[in-house]
Amino acid sequence: MNHHAFNPEHLGLTRREFLNRCGMGFGALGMAGLLEPDSASAASLSPLTPKLPHFPVKAKRVIHLFMNGGPSHVDTFDPKPALDKYAGKLLPGENLKTERKTGAAFPSPFKFQKYGKSGIEVSEIFSNVAQHIDDIAVIRSMHADVPNHEPSLLLMNCGEARQIRPSFGSWINYGLGTLNQNLPGFISMCPGYPIQESQNWQCGFLPGVYQGTYINTRETRLEKLIENIENKRLPLPDQRRQLDLLKQINARHAQQRSNESQLESRIESFELAYRMQMEASDAFDISKEPEHVRKMYGDGTQGRQILIARRLIERGVRFVQVWHGDGQPWDNHDDIAVNHRNLANQCDRPIAALLSDLKQRGLLDETLVIWGGEFGRTPTVELPTPGSNAGKINGRDHNHHGFTMWLAGGGVRGGYVHGATDEFGFRAAEKRMHVHDLHATLLRLLGFDHEKLTFRSAGRDFRLTDVHGNVVKELIA
Predict the structure, then answer these.
(1) CA 408 → CA 105, 136, 229, 442, distances in Å?
(2) Residues whose CB is less than 8 angstroms from the CB of residue 459 and which lie 6 or more positions away in sequence, other chains included
(3) Burial track 8-37 (b if 16+ CB lie within 10 A, e otherwise)
(4) Can you give the pTM of this predicted structure?
(5) What is the rounded CA–CA span in Å between residue 399 and residue 382?
(6) Among 232, 287, 378, 465, which residue's beta carbon has the most beta carbons within 10 A?
(7) Judging by DSSP bridges, how do beta strands 403-408 and 136-143 pair with one another?
(8) Is 282 a residue whose pLDDT tops 80?
C-alpha cells in the first residue's frame, strides 16, 4: 500500500535538492566527500564545484578574444578579389541594407597570401596569427540579425538581442563549475568598458555566482585591477572567523526562506572574495613570467591581458573573455586602412603568442580559443552622413549579413574553412551559420547538448540557443 501521496513538485527537484532531502541531508554530505575527499567543507558544496558535461570532450576551458566594434572580414580573413574589378563602381544589383548608406565597391587596402599546409588566405595585417592557420577553423559564413552594435553584442554574448538572458560564459560556469575555488569561474577583461558594459557578461536569471567578474586591464597594479582585493584592516584568520559567523547567520536566515538563489550567491561571493586574496595576486602578476615569454606577448595592453588570460586558464578558470578596448575600437566608419592596421598591430602578435604558448604547454587541445566581433563590415564604402562619420569615404559600415570568426584548439578542425560569403563578401552564401548555430557548436565542443543545458525560470526551461541552433559537425575534428 502506498502511504505517501504523489507530489508533482518532487519531479522538479534538482540533484542538490534531492541529496539534501535524502536521509536528513546525509546524501549531500556523502557527495561532499566524493567531490572533495580531503575536506567535506562547505566549499565542496559550492555552486562552482566542478561538474562533468553531458559527454567527454577535449575542451575544458575557453578564451574568447572579442574584437568589439566589428572587424572587417574582407580585410582580415575573407579575401574578395572581385572587389578590385569593381573598384569605385556600384556592385551588380542593389546594395544590401545596413545601418547607413553605402556606395561603390571598396577593395581591401591589404594584401592576402596563402599560409600553412592548408593554404588558407589571410590578410597581411594578421601575418603572425596566419602562422597558426593549420590549427584554426575559419568560419566565413557567419550572419546575425541586425546591423546595430547593442543587439548584436547581446546576441553574440547572450544568444538573445533584446531580453535579459545569461551570457555564454555564465552558461559555461553553470554547466562546468570552476577548477579553482580560489578564482572566479568566469572573468571578463577589458581596458575600459565595451558598449552595453556588464550586460555582456551578465548572469540573467542564473544565480548571481555565475556572472562574469570584470577586470579593468587599463590598470596594471593588482589593487586597481581588482577593487578591494586586500583587507588592510583585518588579517586572514580574523576575516575567516568573521565570515564563519556571517555564514551561520545567513544559514539561519536561509532556513526560513526557500529558493533564495540571491542569498546563496551573496554567501558564495563573500567566500570567493576571501579565497581570492591568496591566489589573485599571483595569477595577475605577469612579472612572474620569464622575460622571453613577456617579450613574446609584447609590452602593450593587448599583450598583457592576453598573457593574463593564459595564466588564468592555466589556474583553472573556465571562461576568460578578452575585449580589445574601450567602447568599439574596430568600428571603423572612416580611415579603415589606417585604423584596422593599427588595431591588428596591437593584437596580432599577442594572439599568435597565445596560440604558440598554449601549444607548447600542452594546453591548446583543452582550450577553445574564439576570435571575432559582433558582426563584420560592408564590402562597399560608407557614404558621408552628417553627424555619423567624418565624410572621408574610406571606411565601411556594419554588416550583419555576412562576416568571419575563427576557432582554434579544443577539438576544433584545424586548417579548415567553413562556408563562404558571396563573391563580394556582402552576404553569407554557402553553409550559412547563424550565431545560434555557433553557440550550439561551441557547447558541443565543450561536451554539452545545447538542447539539454537548461535552467528553469518563470515556468520555462531556458537555454543559450533558445529554440534555435544546429551543431555544425564539420568544425569538429
Answers:
(1) 32, 5, 33, 11
(2) none
(3) eeeeeeeeeeebbeeeeeebbeebbeebbe
(4) 0.85
(5) 11
(6) 378
(7) antiparallel
(8) yes
